[in-house]
Amino acid sequence: MGLLTRDIALDLGTAATRIYNAHAGVVVNEPSAVAVNVTTGRILAIGAEAGRMAGRTPAHVKVIRPLRAGNIDDFEVTGRMLQHLLLVAGHRIPARTQAVVCAPSDTSGVGRRAVLDTCRVVGVTRVKLIPKPVAAAVGAGLPVQEATGTLIVDVGAGTTEIAVLCLGGVVAARSVPVSGDALDEAILQHLRRQYQLDVGRHTAERLKRDLAAAETAGRRLSVRGRCSYSGLPRTLLLEGAEIRAALRDPLDRIVWALTAVLDHCPPELSQDILMRGLTLTGDGSRLHGLDRLLQQATGTPVHIAQDPGTAAVRGAGRCAEDPSLRNLLESAPTR
Known about the structure:
The chain folds into three domains: about 5-135 and about 310-330, 2-Layer Sandwich (Nucleotidyltransferase, domain 5), CATH 3.30.420; about 140-180 and about 250-310, Nucleotidyltransferase, domain 5 (2-Layer Sandwich); about 180-245, Alpha-Beta Complex (Actin, Chain A, domain 4). Helix content is about 40%, strand content about 25%. It has eleven helices and 19 strands. It has helices at about 50-55, 75-90, 110-120, 130-140, 180-195, 200-215, 240-245, 250-265, 265-275, 290-300, 310-320, and strands at about 5-10, 15-20, 25-30, 35, 45, 60-65, 65-70, 70, 100-105, 125-130, 150-155, 160-165, 170-175, 195-200, 220-225, 235-240, 280, 300-305, 330. It is flat and about 60 Å long.
């Protein structure tokens, strides 16, 4: 791929779609959400505007998240969303665009084909793939091409991807459908089961986000919702420890997957990881206390990447710009 301003990197995530323009950085960072009039099929909003509409729409409007667990769940809506976001990024003639696209490390051939077909439908025909853990590691500044073990844990909205990397390749990896969405669902289920309180996903996300401040200040978290029995509005005050306990089961599944990857890691690379530790990327890595939990489980230092949510797309972007990183890219399969 030439060093052209038309080169881009693309991260089609469950929660957010991000586009990186070569030599310009991240130019699009929008929720992967589309508001559709289900009666007419007309798209009403895309990205942040659609995300704000979630849970607040009339019966004939539906907010769709067209990607699930890093895979395309609604091909048509994903294509229309991507077409719009490419225009936002300034790519009005997609055929001139060369793209490096993040792909989950264990995505099936069908899943990868869907990603490629979506790009081609919107006019981006020159595509290379990069495993998302590799892209995230490059974006975090890790020496993935060296003969040393690197452990990356990318906590997204739909999946957590864990990989041991060495010499530019994936040595051991595991992807589990437990991450941001699963943590939100654990909070929703706890409030429903314990207090008969129904809340939306935005409220669950806020509770996760405010957990650190609440525990630091020693205050309780306020949550407003609807009583499932009476249908009336209701307000609760919750201890931060209660929210953390509700998250324990999905977090334990991440720990289990991490230990399983380490169990399949060659001894020489295990020594490298023990000394250098693991790096957290993805929006879910910001969860208060996650780094301490993983450190206790593995006995290794845990580092959170700078701007962890955009690490993957920035790493893919570096691969589009830097010829020395092109060996990390995979050619798109032919039809």
